[in-house]
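2024-03-11 09:14:02 DEBUG pipeline.ingest accepted 1 chain
2024-03-11 09:14:02 DEBUG pipeline.ingest length=198
2024-03-11 09:14:03 DEBUG pipeline.predict start
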Amino acid sequence: MTKSSEKDGTTKTNILNATLELIKTEGLEKITLRKIAAAADVNLALINYYFGSKDKLINETLKVLLASFQEAFSILDDYSMPPKERFKTFLLHYINSIIVYPELLREMLGKGDISFESQLDYKNFMKTMGLNKIKMTIQEITGVEDSDILTMMMMQIHAAFFFPILMACKQNAPIIWNPIPIEKQIDHLFSHYFAKYS
């Protein structure tokens, strides 16, 4: 790799990282190219050179972020762990990734005002692979074979964790509880939800 291409890679990565940080602290709708340029310590022309537009930069940034969410699903393929432990490890990884960017959960679910190509890629992944992996893991834990019941169980488990995250990212939302560590929440839910299948 030449020094020029190393510098290009570093500059591009710095811009992506600055964008991710601004998404985390300010939300998607409030970031501007000027704020990104200032945070990345580059000029606007460099952002346009590497990405072409704000939408393309946001799309590339979200691809990086959503790829980390998708990586969590590979945990469900690790059959060296018992299914309940595998599911817990997956949830810990997935939820902790999303908690850093709660507003993105709304965007991924299509509840926000922004639509990006990476969002559509993620939804397609979830429809074709992600949700099925979760259902299959729940089936391993419970022995339930009815697809509708497995879907219902998956939705109930997701709601238990994602509702508080959604509430946290709503402006002026009432604080309805003091956060309990995610691992403790998962253990508590699993001890009740899967009790009859132990």
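2024-03-11 09:14:41 DEBUG pipeline.report The first helix runs from residue 3 to 26.
2024-03-11 09:14:41 DEBUG pipeline.predict end
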